[in-house]
Amino acid sequence: MHKYRIEGGIPIRGTIAASGNKNAALPCIAATLLSEEPVILRNIPQIEDTGVMLLILQALGASVEKIGEHEWKIDASLIRCSDIPAELSKKIRASILFAGPLVARTGKAIMPPPGGDVIGRRRVDTHFLALQELGARISVEGPFTFTANKLVGADIFLDETSVTATENAIMAAVLAEGHTIINNAASEPHVQDLCNMLVAMGAKISGIGSNILQIDGVKKLHGTDFSIGPDFMEIGSYIGLAAATKGSITITGVNPKDMRPLRVAFGKLGIRWTIDGDALTVSLGQEMKVNTDLGGMIPKIDDSPWPGFPPDLTSIMTVVATQVEGTVLIFEKMFESRMFFVDKLISMGARITLCDPHRAVVSGPCTLHGDKLVSPDVRAGMAMVIAALIAHGESEISNVYQVERGYENLVEKLRSLGARIEQVELED
Hints:
The protein is α+β, with helices and mostly antiparallel strands. Helices cover 29% and strands 23% of the residues. The strands form 6 sheets. A 4-stranded mixed β-sheet has the order 21-22-1-23, with helices on one face. A 4-stranded mixed β-sheet has the order 2-14-16-15, with helices on one face. α1 runs parallel beside α2 and α8 packs parallel to α12. The protein is globular and about 60 Å long.
């Protein structure tokens, strides 16, 4: 285990390539269970979370072969069991994504409650609702157990726009008998990636990118060769880093359409970029001034289901806002513990008023000072890395496992941009 030691106050400059979208890679890895033919997945980020998902596949009996730096060949023709090992399930929230494909393929899935970030209550009720509507029987006494003699299409209305519940419902429905409608479906780019992969495997899905998905079940899916899209959350994090350190950056491999919700939110902080093809550039000399609402009112940056601003970036925006002239309200609606990390920012010198578990008022610009920090989750951890790179003096960040779960080659990428960051082994 290690921690980060960071010397802040240096503007970052340079070019990096966007990694593959973690939140697309995870359901696409799970979806390989739906076919008895080999599936090749490309642009898979090399991070802890994808590694755990691949280990779960192997535990279920699938053959997993690395064929390139970010490329894997998965053959799930010989699935031996439907039980997900407890030690793996507890490592990652996304382990629940195996429920849908396992029930569809084998009629059964057994798993302990999933682990992952500690950012407040994370409901699994919507997963249960969707799979029950398709005909699965569910027991929560002890491990979660899903069983079904057969799955049958249904008209499903999700009680919340859950990304992973939508993905589970899609993966179960593509092999269900008859027609399925998923209403109030999530439509994020990673959900679209999953749908497009399944269509390439022979699934019949319409309405991709909308909140109503229509699926006609098929008897079997074939293999495919599919490339994961870019991680717009990673891209947004590096945009914030460049602006907050008064540096510049070019990020290649960007999907311009994914950036539209981010452009609106960053624009409220006086941060803008240009896109040429798939290359996004944040240049020097950003305005870094809050653009007030009509009448001089304090603007709000709040998250919402796609195509709204993604909740994963509210932590990043909170840090960036400390370096911007003016006052802004950050409103994170989904997780009641995600904003508690601002206490550490306050200890570094940030002027932030935490109104309640969901809302923080940030006034800037302010000078941050180095501190000893702990990463509570993936996105707050990255926010602390950015804060440390802004701050005067030295910072140490522990529990960086929580950062590296979501950001590929973070230290290497930051060093290539001129950041002074090193990994320090923890003493036993």
